[in-house]
Amino acid sequence: MCQLVEIVLPVPLAQVFSYRHQRDPEADQESALQPGDLVAVPFGRRKNVTGLVVGVRDLAPDVREVDGVKLRDVSRVFPAEYRITGDRRRLADWLASYYILPLGEVVPLFHPPSPGTRARGSGQDTAQSPYPCVDPENITLTDAQERAVKSAEKILDSRSFGALLLHGVTGSGKTEVYLNIISLALAAGRGAIYLLPEIALTPQTLSRISARFGDRVAAIHSGMSAGRRCRVHEQAAKGEIQVVVGPRSALFAPVRDLGVIIIDEEHETSYKQDEKPRYHARHAALVRGRENKAVVMLGSATPDLESMVNALDGRFELLELPDRMGSELPSVEVVDMRGGGNLEGFTPALTEAVNDTLEKGRQVILYYNRRGFARVLQCRDCGEVVMCPHCDIGVTYHLRPRRLLCHYCGFTRKVPDTCPDCGAEEFLPAGGGTEKVELNLQAHFPDARILRLDHDTTRRRGSHHRILTAFARGEADILVGTQMVAKGHHFPKVGLVGVLAADDGLCLPDYRSAERSFQLLTQVAGRSGRTEAGRVIFQTWRPDDPVIQAAAAHDYQAFLAAETPERKALGYPPFNRLLRLGVTGRRLGHVEEAAGQLAEAVRASLNGPGIEILGPAPAVFPRLKDRYRFQILIKGKLGKKEKDWLGECLRSFKEGFKGVDVVHDVDPVSMY
Ligand code: ADP
Ligand code: ZN
To answer: Which CATH number fits domain 143-321: 3.10.150.10, 3.90.180.10, 3.40.50.300, 3.90.480.20?
Structure first.
């Protein structure tokens, strides 16, 4: 008994591949393959490539080739827990079509990297809680929380699809709402998925979920061993686990009868995968929720503009939690940096506030979103900046160890004695960094214990957690760092958050820079005054900027009022769609020519009402890692026909231009 099996594989080819499957004569019916089965097959010189069965038919046992092509045998069939069927298969089809990818390239999202691996040892699936958790018995939901839970309950009861946007400041009780909704789903015999932006950075949330649901919940993320990931996958498929927690990839877990999907901090850009397949987990969650007639709850203190517009247009139900639990939001002072008087990036107002806070025995967080000692090293005579030879970007000056480092490709060199351009011997470290902030602090506050949290201090495994835990325990007085200090942790003793350059991210060449700045400033400000009144200081060169003003006033509506008209006027999302084509290669002329031809082809075929094609133009970073970069931007909504055409165009284009790579990004969240 043989089968001819059609399989899609994770390769950039829009075709199915035929294989032969020899059914086991002993257990004939059992061993027959069916669409949805996950198998391993030989492909080219590779022995075992995981693929999805999309079609089968019977084959006479003596047939060993089809259309003159020799059939190879399926080498392995994975257990039933790895099947991709029903809602997950439909989600895969949607992803392939929406993000313009062959089905085979989205299949890896739906299974662990090495399916079928046995777990070695009996590792913990749930994080043991090092933090005290409030006993749910002792919590009476506030009216606002109650309303949010009731809305979800109504949707669950009617077994329909519904999307809810929970807008509540940090500490307003959103997590408590999520946990209650999950409880309702479990009580109705349904499962839940809880997505977090970065699971490693949110141990407190994870342990709260574990404390509430015990052995019915498991986390799934890339930091786990292959065996553990497989075990969680299998347990979810069997219904032994009903709640799966994890980063964006957890959305694809085979949770049975999914009733709830929670997307915590839904505005975070880490929900968009920045490598192939470039999907957005929030969008995909809405599709999976619809397939399952489930509740999809998006929660944030600073909702993504797109989600808020969806809510205002009535596609999502908007739920507000206006008040912080137990304490007030901290008051924010905007301090003007213009007019001098600043010492090494510290205004007198901030210095005084740090002093004052430390004297009261409370802690300080200082946020500066650049690491290193100086952004660039500039020649004092000719003004030239030392550049990375592989990227058209200045290299960053680091003190410990003393070297120049490219933050884009990792290139490093020793600090030159003389200017490579004019031979002068004096350099000016221009622009600051967290390393410099730390040194300055030490000089200003010699008795303070200082911790630094950035990419450089968190290279070693576990160091990130160690620094945060030490600070939470009060083993340091000041925590200085990049945006890592803004996320996750709850520090009860923090009485002051200082932002050294609040306008730093405002003027990046990206239509979302204002939104991202607002989110970050709001988030970092939210670290202050969690248990008793706290202060926040925004130092800025642009004190009147509406984004800074809105963040200082904790006023999301003001941000919305300032940002919405700009997006509308310029035709940017959420009022329009974007698709970015990035063309890269090592030879400038070649890349430029390729980008030009691609743009021409796209213009000829996709130009229509409501569609605008921009470029090609050099990308924001015109050269990175020795590759020249151009981009073409398609503004407007493409239908299925246009997307199919584009997919075909890109595939044939890659064949025509060797040495040039094209990536396409549907709904890009970053324009670099
Ligand atoms: P968010 O997720 O919005 O940051 P949390 O759900 O973490 O807010 O709530 C903040 C704090 O308030 C937590 O310590 C939580 O246990 C507590 N909390 C939440 N809801 C209530 C409630 N109804 N009564 C008492 N405490 C609550
Ligand atoms: Zn570089």
So the answer is: 3.40.50.300
Contact 536, 497 (CB under 8 A): yes
Q: What is the CA radius of gyration of the chain?
A: 27
Distance, in Å, from the CA atom of 4 to the CA atom of 72, rounded to the nearest integer, reads: 10
Q: pLDDT digit string (tens) for 201-247? A: 667 788 889 999 999 999 998 888 999 999 999 999 999 999 999 99
User: Is residue 126 over pLDDT 60?
Assistant: no
CA 405 to the chain's CA centroid? 25
- Residue labelled with tokens 């009402």: 609
Looking at domain 2-85+96-110, its CATH class is alpha beta
pLDDT tens profile 179-202: 999 999 999 999 999 999 987 666
Domain ranges of the chain: 2-85+96-110, 143-321, 331-372+432-567, 578-666
CA distances from 328 to 143, 276, 392, 533, 534 (A): 18, 43, 46, 7, 8
Q: CA-to-CA distance for 662 and 654, rounded, in angstroms?
A: 7
pLDDT tens digits for range 315-338: 999 999 998 887 788 899 999 998
Atom of ligand 1 nearest to the CA of 326: 12
- Tell me, in angstroms, the distance from the centre of ligand 2 to residue 532's CA: 45
Strand order in the sheet with 295-300: 217-219, 243-246, 191-195, 258-264, 295-300, 162-168, 317-321
pTM above 0.85?
A: yes
- Specify the CATH class of 331-372+432-567 in words: alpha beta
Residues 413, 398: Cα–Cα separation, whole Å: 11
Best probe residue, ligand 1, of 174, 175, 178, 196 (max atoms within 8 Å of C-beta): 175
pLDDT tens digit sequence for 598-614: 999 999 999 888 999 99
Quick check: do 143-321 and 331-372+432-567 share a fold? yes
- In CATH, what number does 578-666 get? 3.30.70.600
Q: Choose between 417 and 137: higher pLDDT.
A: 417
The residues lining ligand 1, judged by C-beta closer than 6 Å to any ligand atom, are 134, 139-142, 145, 168, 170-176, 325
**Looking at ligand 1, which residue's alpha carbon is closest to its atom 6?**
173
- DSSP class of residue 374? B
- Tally of CB atoms within 10 A around 261: 28
The Å distance, Cα 455 to ligand 2 centre, comes to 16
DSSP for residue 346: B
- Residue 326's Cβ-side half-sphere holds a number of Cα atoms within 13 Å equal to 9
Sign of the CA dihedral 384, 387, 392, 398?
negative
